[in-house]
Amino acid sequence: MILEETHQNTKQQDSDLRYLSPIKIETKVEKKYCYFKQRNIKYIDYKDPTFLIKFLNAQGKILPRRITGTLQKNQNKLNAAIKRCRQIGLLPFVTDDLR
Q1: What pTM does this model have?
Q2: In the predicted model, is pLDDT for residue 97 greater than 90?
Q3: Are the C-beta atoms of 45 and 36 separated by less than 8 Å?
Q4: What's the confidence (pLDDT) of residue 64?
């Protein structure tokens, strides 16, 4: 009899835990600003690989807008500049550790 009561109590506790709402964690979301708009950069020079490396990850892939915060127009210019820089051999296409 005691075993049945404890078994029922554990079932009831499990069901109570199952329907609890998730913990709300407040995180501070920092707004991302376009690097080029802040510094008033109109032309992205493809002949400057040290500047373009800022927008590549360690494997040499181009970082997306959601990470860098650049505007679509500037992201397109940046992509074109990085691809041109790769074509003339200043930046590698793929690497193990770029930074």
Answers
A1: 0.68
A2: no
A3: no
A4: 95
